[in-house]
Amino acid sequence: MTLFDEAPAPSTLDELREGARRCQACPLYANATQAVAGEGPADARVILVGEQPGDQEDVQGRPFVGPAGKVLRQLLDEVGLPIERCYLTNAVKHFKFEQRGKRRIHQRPNRAETTACHPWLAAELALVAPRVVVALGVVAASSLLGENVVLRDVRGRALEWSGPGQLIVTAHPSSLLRTDDPDERERARDAVLQDLRLAIAVEGEV
Question: What is the mean pLDDT of residues 35-54?
Answer without folding.
Answer: 97
